[in-house]
Specification:
Layout: H1 3-27, H2 44-64, E1 66-68, H3 80-100, H4 103-107, E2 109-114, E3 117-123, H5 124-148
Parallel strand pairs: 1-2
Antiparallel strand pairs: 2-3
Helix pairs in contact: 1-2, 1-3, 1-5, 2-3, 2-5
Organism: Dyadobacter psychrophilus
Keywords: Metal-binding
GO molecular function, one term: metal ion binding
Length: about 170
Amino acid sequence: MENKSFALAYIQEIEAEYTSTRKCLERIPETVYNFKPHPKSMEMGYLTLLVAEIPLWVAVMVEEGEIDFVTFKHMDVREREAVVRHYDENIERAKAALQNATEDDLAKEFRLKNKGELLYAQPMIAAVGSTINHWVHHRGQLTVYMRLNDIAVPSIYGPSADDKGFS
C-alpha cells in the first residue's frame, strides 16, 4: 500500500473516532477537572485537554516531523466550550495535514524529543498510527474517570450502560 493510502485510511479512522470523543468532551464539567482516581493518576482536566489535543499531535508530526515536549505549545483552557472548540480545530488540522501530505512527507522519520534530546524515532506512517491508538487509549481512560464522577458515558462502539433502555 502506498503511503498516501495510509494517510487516507488514517483520515477515515480519525473521522470514525471523532463523534464519540466529542460527546465525551462535551459532558465533562470544569468542576471535576481536579479529580484524580489515584495519587499517581493525572487530573481529569489534564486528561480532558490531552484527549482534545492529541489530534493536533498528528498535524504537528506530519507538518514538522518532530515534537519536543518542552517546546510543544499546549492550550491552557478550563472552559468546556473552549476545549470542544480546540478539539474540533485540532481534528480539522490533523485531517488537513494528512490530506496535504505527500508520499515523501509520510515516508520521513518522526522524532520525539525532550529538551532537544531524542527519545525515539520511527517512520511517520507508524508514528501516526501509534498516535491515533494513543488518543483512543486516553479516551478510554477518560470514560473511566467519567464513570467515577457519575458523568454519563456515551456510546462509543456500541451502547453504554448509560444509554436509554440498556442495562
